[in-house]
Amino acid sequence: MAASTKLPAFDPADPLGIDDLLDPEDLAVRDTVRGWAADRVLPHVADWYEKGELPGIRELARELGSIGALGMSLDGYGCAGASAVQYGLACLELEAADSGIRSLVSVQGSLAMYAVHRFGSEEQKQTWLPRMAAGEVIGCFGLTEPDHGSDPAHMRTRAKRDAGGDWVLDGRKMWITNGSVAGVAVVWAQTEEGIRGFVVPTDSPGFSAPEIKHKWSLRASVTSELVMDGVRLPADAVLPEVTGLRGPLSCLSHARYGIVWGSMGAARSSFEAAVEYAKSREQFGRPIGGFQLTQAKLADMAVELHKGILLAHHLGRRMDAGRLRPEQVSFGKLNNVREAIDICRTARTILGANGISLEYPVMRHATNLESVLTYEGTVEMHQLVLGKALTGLDAFR
Ligand SMILES: Cc1cc2nc3c(=O)[nH]c(=O)nc-3n(C[C@H](O)[C@H](O)[C@H](O)COP(=O)(O)OP(=O)(O)OC[C@H]3O[C@@H](n4cnc5c(N)ncnc54)[C@H](O)[C@@H]3O)c2cc1C
């Protein structure tokens, strides 16, 4: 190193200098989403969480549409056409506010819109995507059933063609984000040709979506059951471009990619709360951040947080280059959500009794992440995906 080289100052918010990887457009996206969340979510989210509701969800969806956050990395049809890295940065900023808000955006963009964008007919795309990108129509994605979660191949929901060519859909879906506020549901069902996806307007006779209450996680998010009792759909309601589990699994891969980033947002928020607390809380006559044991916790949290963000960047660049494999997404989801929960739990210990209070974000993030750990493939499913890729042996059954 030349003697005259001046090292940049150490930045506690970005200790590895990861921001150097971002260009001005990336930074602008990040600032816009961070600003929106600071203004529209952070002042209210503890209250929403305590009440177990997301009031004004339709207004929030329209605002998210206006900042380009819905279907953000999709092209055309009113979508922002952002890069995968920019979409990831948006997920991180939204989840730093609350995993429920990031879930709203993930399900809308990466599951419902992505399914229509990738596998839909031109008419389906024209009908739904511009209004979904604008947040005028909320979408949901029905794969999980009461008796089939990790194993969707055995789903019971069934669509049959009747004599006139219409489809008739019967079954139940469970744990569906955005279900009761959705105007359109992408529902996966068994057919004679294998699993197919259906675009279902939620005002179709026979369709209902009762909300699931009594959740202790993702409380600022709408979660519902979908009940389909003889729902009659026109022949062109089916997504024409895919048959089989490949359809829902490729949507899930896209959404999981957002979680790789998003989970680091929840971790960052908890880490920052812990640092602030450690600097101001005094015990034994000095700030608790001055004790070596607290510093060891903070150092380990920072290492995992920024390793996780680097991993997210790496996967984002691979996605932008069209080189991201599903096993690599599993790698990221497995690591980052697991580490994010660990960071939140350690932050909780630093805050002592205050750590369990909703006045601080830490416990809210930790309990939210329990859902994030399970949805979009549990830890065990991602271990099995990686185990299979590493050994060539399928241990799923
Ligand atoms: C808040 C929330 C929102 C959600 N939103 C949606 C949504 O919008 N759309 C949607 O379709 N779904 C959604 N889900 C459902 C979610 O994807 C499922 O909960 C998840 O796939 C796990 O399914 P399950 O809960 O039925 O658990 P199960 O599949 O019953 O698994 C229970 C346990 O058994 C383990 N297990 C299962 N099989 C094996 C095996 N072969 N080897 C080892 N261990 C195994 C699992 O890892 C897990 O630990 C949501 C869930 C939550 C909590």
Structural class comes to: alpha+beta
Order of helices and strands: HHHHHHEEEEEEEHEEHHHH
Q: Distance between termini?
A: 55 Å
Strand order, sheet with most strands? 2-3-7-6
Poorly predicted runs are none
How would you explain this protein's 3D organization?
By secondary structure, the chain is α+β, with helices and mostly antiparallel strands. It has helices spanning 24-40, 45-51, 57-66, 84-97, 99-119, 122-133, 246-280, 292-320, 326-350, 362-374, 379-391; strands spanning 139-142, 158-161, 167-177, 184-191, 194-201, 207-208, 223-233, 282-283, 286-287. 49% of the residues lie in helices and 13% in strands. The strands form three sheets. Strands 2-3-7-6 form a four-stranded antiparallel sheet, covered by helices on one side. Strands 1-4-5 form a three-stranded mixed sheet. β8 and β9 form a beta hairpin. α4 packs antiparallel against α5 (99-119), α7 (246-280) runs parallel beside α9 (326-350) and α8 (292-320) packs antiparallel against α9. It starts with 23 loop residues before the first helix and ends in a 6-residue tail after the last helix. It binds flavin-adenine dinucleotide. Flavin-adenine dinucleotide binds at residues 107, 141-144, 149-150, 175-177, 218, 223, 371, 374-375, 378, 380-381, 396.
